Amino acid sequence: MLSIALCFVYNCFVDPIELHPIQKALLEQLHRLGHVDVGEIVVQFGVTRQAVSQHLRHMVKKGWLTSQGRTRKKNWRVLPLAGTTFEDAISSNLAEDQVWRQRVEPTLKNLPDNVRQICQHGFTEIYNNAIEHSEGKTIKFSLVYSAGGVLLRVEDDGVGIFNKIKRECGLDDPREAILELSKGKLTTDPTRHSGEGIFFTSRMFDDFHIVSGQFVFLHRKPDNDWLIESQTQEVSGTRVDMSIVPWSERTVSQVFDAFASPGDDYGFSHTHVPLALARIGQEQLVSRSQAKRVLTRFERFKTVSLDFTGIDEIGQAFADEIFRVFQRQHPEIKIEVLRANSQVQKMIQHVLAETNTDAQQGSLFNKNASP
Fold this sequence. Notes:
There is one protein chain. The chain is an alpha+beta fold. The protein is built from 13 helices and 13 strands. The strands form four sheets. It has a six-stranded antiparallel β-sheet. A hairpin with a 2-residue loop joins strand 5 (about 140-145) and strand 6.
């Protein structure tokens, strides 16, 4: 069964080259905050409020924005310029590449090549996941293109991605499934899939959300935030939202290359682990059991970047299990520390001091890396 509910394309596409930097900043604000903060733009660009208003009026005239209200109480909203919505019955005959080519790509034909290729990668990966892993009956897809970005949404009515990984991998909590997804090389069907799809797709888009059950897994650029949020209303199945601004300079190749090893036929040998995802609720990272959960499947990689963003402190047992015990057992695996504050660094240095690894300490901390 196939039902097309909506398909519209207006003749007012946005050429990213045409956009002024102030206009891009305003559109990003609307995407990020849901409203315009003129004061922030004034400070960022050193211009007057009147100059910012002039850019807003220009975008209204072009058909990119609409406004309600007067003067400083105006509410600005990004207008959709193109979009499509459809629903498919899941079957062995459903092929994501054909769906992309016939029903999605024509709506995005005016996008820059790099952005369109990212959209193609994201759509085909997530749509295929729904076909082959969701255990559902239907997939719903929607796409909205505006001056502020492209939003792709894939929904299925299956068992839910976090619950399925929890079941198949024998985990205690669905939130542990989110941590494992963030590492990559995780699949419930290793004979047919490499487990790399969500890892790379989540890093290609500006915003990447997975909503399933009671949990939301979010990745946001440019701050590289990784979050788990709980929600009171449980969502059946899985919903994935992916968005990117039309003027993004990111490419599919850049994302793959960031985690490839030239000495290993450019294979996926480097992973990035946001440790904020290792916490359940408000707990702190203090125990060896927590460290062992973090270390799961590290042996599949040559380099592991541990990102301590949002982690104020760690316990001695947690640090010792990772940086002394595991590293002694697996000296071939390089562990990097990203964005660790002084308290975290002191604890890591404390457990390493007993092993006389001054050289290791010097190369361990990498504050500027941004996988």
